[in-house]
Task: inverse folding
């Protein structure tokens, strides 16, 4: 069979046409990028881990009634997903001060925030994904006020789920970002969680030691990114201990 048509290629994933209308195949690459792709590398096995971890989180969200694009895992690097129209925003939920927020506000990293804070950034790599207020979002037509209310509600439900799951395995959910898309079923439209949920898109710290178990390991040269992601997967039971997810990339045919 001929190789499926490529629909889109991003920094960490590639989308191919799916086997049925309204579906796509999402392929997880081993590429790692930081600082708007100014720093990049190929970390063997990263795509396998993120595929399995995103499957784990999306499946868990489905079980508690949070709609998302995940349908099934195809193989070690690919999953079948619903096709959606991505809203050009990243939805960021922060439970602790870290990263750009700590820098902007002069806060020490790890300070507990009074409540979860939801922010929006405009998805544009050339502009560095700038933070944008709700007024901008509505004025430029990226989303309506109702969309924003629904996106915040979805993000906070994801936060509750992820925080609980992570706490149960000794990990603090510092912050995370998700993307949300419009899924159409005939004339009916609903907003669903899309893209991925993995250590690429979350900040995860060990509860006891504050050891970083996320992409900050790569950003800040703190050690092996694969070891950090494997630790998260092992604690969650996604990967058995001593498993080696180092497999070469294969594309669906």
Result:
């Amino acid at each position: 069979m001929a190789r499926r048509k490529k629909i889109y290629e991003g920094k960490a994933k590639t989308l191919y046409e799916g086997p049925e209308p309204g579906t796509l195949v999402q392929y997880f690459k081993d590429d790692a990028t930081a600082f708007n792709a100014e720093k990049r590398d190929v970390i063997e096995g990263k795509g396998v881990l993120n595929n399995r971890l995103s499957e784990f989180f999306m499946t868990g969200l489905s079980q508690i009634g949070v709609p998302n694009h995940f349908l099934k895992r195809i193989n070690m690097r690919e999953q079948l997903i619903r096709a959606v129209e991505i809203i050009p925003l990243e939805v960021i939920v922060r439970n602790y001060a870290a990263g750009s927020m700590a820098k902007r506000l002069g806060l020490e990293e790890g300070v507990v925030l009074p409540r979860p804070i939801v922010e929006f950034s405009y998805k544009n790599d050339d502009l560095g994904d700038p933070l944008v207020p709700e007024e901008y979002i509505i004025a430029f037509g990226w989303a309506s006020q109702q969309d924003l209310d629904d996106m915040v509600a979805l993000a906070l439900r994801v936060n509750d789920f992820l925080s609980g799951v992570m706490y149960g395995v000794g990990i603090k959910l510092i912050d995370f970002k998700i993307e949300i898309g419009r899924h159409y079923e005939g004339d009916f439209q609903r907003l669903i969680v899309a893209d991925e949920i993995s250590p690429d898109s979350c900040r995860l710290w060990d509860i006891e030691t504050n050891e970083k178990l996320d992409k900050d390991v790569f950003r800040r040269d703190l050690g092996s990114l694969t070891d950090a992601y494997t630790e998260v997967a092992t604690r969650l039971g996604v990967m058995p201990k001593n498993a080696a997810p180092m497999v070469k990339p294969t594309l669906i045919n």
Notes: Residues 246-253 have pLDDT under 50 and may be disordered. The domain at 6-84+225-236 is CATH 3.30.200.20 (Phosphorylase Kinase; domain 1). Residues 145-167 form the longest helix (23 residues). The chain is about 30% helix and 30% strand.
